[in-house]
């Protein structure tokens, strides 16, 4: 049959490759016709609550009028122009806003395309900085187990090499330095003993390879795709001091944790310290257009400028895209113009209460909530395909991964809609 004779879904199944799928067995896929607020509407008219915020980015919901207006207005004047030797108001205005809300020491902003690219940029910054200050052997990275930093080549090298999604590429990727994930959870009492809090192992690895390591990169407080694990921020406070002692930069990957998701504006807010480099993406534009940025301090930026070749060697074609900058500025204005902390706190409180019955289910290993992140961890792998087969009945789109049934709902989710989400999670926990 020619492609012209295929239905839309048939064409999709035969020709379009979706993320993390087997083209021979693609699993249930739904055609979305429109979206608004917390809902996506399928081609058969079914409305589903998007409990995933479309992979954690639609914090203001779909088709937010302020963000779409900003994109429309920008489209009429300047859709795109190269950022090499040129600049524009949307990039500058967004930069001003970012400096208002991010950690004070992070004064230099590098715009890029996506979260994975933001990590690539951060890693390149770290290596080029070390080279510029006379440490050219520092080209490797340390990180913690169960982390996830993206699907691009260098980012994959700091994802967990054994349990992560990219383990089959080991041997092709650079070999990095891994330590156990921080063992003390966020709501547990901190233990000062380095043998028990993970810092003893971290010191051992960093000291053994200090002359090779450019930076220590990790997701602060919340490990996202690596397992939705929440750990104690004191680990980060003491890791910062250790990195300073050994001349190692500290990179926080806040792509998933940024912009209020954890209950702090950034997960860095749980700490007493700030990183040398931070990666931002996902919620930056409220999910309306792909965009990301990497921010660093003057020490790193000026260090790179003072070395050879004196230029930071990265420059995406769509860097600083005006449409994306306008969307991001509108999204951040929406966030900071409301009581986002109260909103996220209310979501957290309701999820804790409504997800609590899952603790009594025999196959549930743990139930945890932090900010607008709710997780039911099972004792076995949970099939996303089997979850998708139930979405029409539940009226909620949930996409489990690994052993986790989780939600990161839009911040605009109403209490009754959130109850539908938690009811769907409990149903999946009982049935899958």
TrEMBL record:
PROSITE patterns: AA_TRANSFER_CLASS_3. The keyword Transferase applies. Homodimer. It holds the Pfam family Aminotran_3. It comes from Phaeobacter piscinae. This is Adenosylmethionine-8-amino-7-oxononanoate aminotransferase. InterPro entries: Aminotrans_3, Aminotrans_3_PPA_site, BioA, PyrdxlP-dep_Trfase, PyrdxlP-dep_Trfase_major, PyrdxlP-dep_Trfase_small. Pathway: Cofactor biosynthesis; biotin biosynthesis; 7,8-diaminononanoate from 8-amino-7-oxononanoate (SAM route): step 1/1. The modification N6-(pyridoxal phosphate)lysine is found at residue 282. Keywords: Aminotransferase, Biotin biosynthesis, Cytoplasm, Pyridoxal phosphate, S-adenosyl-L-methionine, Transferase. Pyridoxal 5'-phosphate binds at residues 115-116, 253, 316-317. Its EC number is 2.6.1.62. It comes from the Bacteria. GO terms for molecular function: adenosylmethionine-8-amino-7-oxononanoate transaminase activity. Its main location: cytoplasm.
